[in-house]
Amino acid sequence: MHHRRRGSLRGHGYFKRLGPGIVTGAADDDPSGIGTYSQVGAAQGLSLLWMAPFLLPLAVGVQEATARLGLVTGKGLGSLIRERFPRWVLIGAVVLLASANTLNIAADLASMGAALSLLVPLPTAVGVIGFAVAMAVAEVVVPYHRYSRVLRWFALSLVAYVLVLAVVHVDWATVAARTFLPRFHFDAANMIALTAIAGTTVSPYLFFWQASEEVEERNDGPTDPVDRPHIVAMRVDVWTGMLSGVITMFAIMCTAAVTLGASGPVNIGTAEQAAKALEPLAGSFAKVLFSVGIVGLGLLAVPVLAGSTAYAVAEALHWNEGLSRRLRDAPGFYAVIVASMAIGLAMVAIGVNPIRALYLAAIFNGVTAPPLILLIVILARSQGVLGKFRSGWASLAATSIAGVAMTAFPLIALLKS
């Protein structure tokens, strides 16, 4: 099978047999996402919790389509765009992705360094530099089959935010009402918040990473033809990953709303500010858990951000690419990974405001995602690309709604501002 671990998702060892889906879902809650969810919860209270059940099927639809493309064709999203669309479309897609990813990396590194300083008495700069160097070296040096295993374990950092929610006081009746009986407000502030939430949940870097990791896993094992059980296992894998990511999103927004925003709107700019502010309200245990989650998910997400940029650039330029290749076999691919980390580190060094960068990264993702989703819809429904395995109507509907919603949110915000 293409995925030896994912061949059967039943029985003992389920977590170890999951494929790229669990890593993608966990990377969805990077420090930028944690900061965005915290800021929205503190400022908007419980009013936007309905976005969790709304976004789950949409995020699954998009990621399932990209995973299907990689699994069936054995090609990354960048390669498929290069083959099927004009060159200007390819260049635009890669530029949008690289720009959003670089901003995300800078924001994430700044948050990780600040969160580490809350846990141990180290200067923030030491943490930022140490994390950047360690992640770049690991991604370049460690063989893929070992590296992917490490990333899966970092995904357990998601549990920290569920535990934080468990130690704070929550009025679950009100939470349920706000989650399943939404109240819609079409003012600019709400629309910008919706753009940020959608952008950090349905993020462009996850599209490229998911497809390329399906190819990596496919090349890492026997090459039997794809059949329906492969597709079903892939879909379960994607659902597991995105469900875990959205549950974490819900936990962070709810925690911020019932603690930081309990007495009215509060401006929390970054994830580490949320962790620090939690201490007098929910105790040191909550602060430590929140900070540990930032570091753990940052260690997972930043390599995914850099890796997705490298996949996109290498596929666009027809270079050798893949974490399963050695450095000498794919020098351009690994050079992009190192450059992405270095540019993100430089942005932190020159004083890019992490508060502004976190939220802007989420909004920028929200604005850049719709054109990429349109390309994914066209590819996933193409008989020439996927043959009998092309996406069904349910997947098409979820992916299309994601694209329409993520187009509408920023447009309404612009009109209302």
Description:
The chain is an all-alpha fold and 417 residues long. It has one domain (5-416): Amino acid/polyamine transporter I, CATH 1.20.1740. The protein is built from 19 helices and no strands. It has helices spanning 14-17, 20-27, 31-44, 51-73, 77-84, 87-119, 124-141, 144-154, 159-167, 172-180, 188-201, 204-219, 228-258, 271-282, 284-317, 331-349, 354-380, 383-386, 393-416. Helix 2 packs across helix 8 and helix 2 runs parallel beside helix 13. It is globular. Mean pLDDT is 82; it is low at 11-15.
Strands, helices and their partners?
Blueprint (H helix, E strand, L loop, with lengths): L13 H4 L2 H8 L3 H14 L6 H23 L3 H8 L2 H33 L4 H18 L2 H11 L4 H9 L4 H9 L7 H14 L2 H16 L8 H31 L12 H12 L1 H34 L13 H19 L4 H27 L2 H4 L6 H24 L1
Under the CATH scheme, which architecture would be assigned? Up-down Bundle
In whole angstroms, how far apart are the ends? 53 Å
**Average pLDDT number:** 82
Major sheet characteristics: none
What's the CATH class, please?
Mainly Alpha
Count of folded domains:
1
Strand % is under 5%
Helical/strand content category: mainly alpha
- CATH topology, what is it called? Amino acid/polyamine transporter I
Total number of beta strands: 0
Helix and strand string, N-terminal first?
HHHHHHHHHHHHHHHHHHH
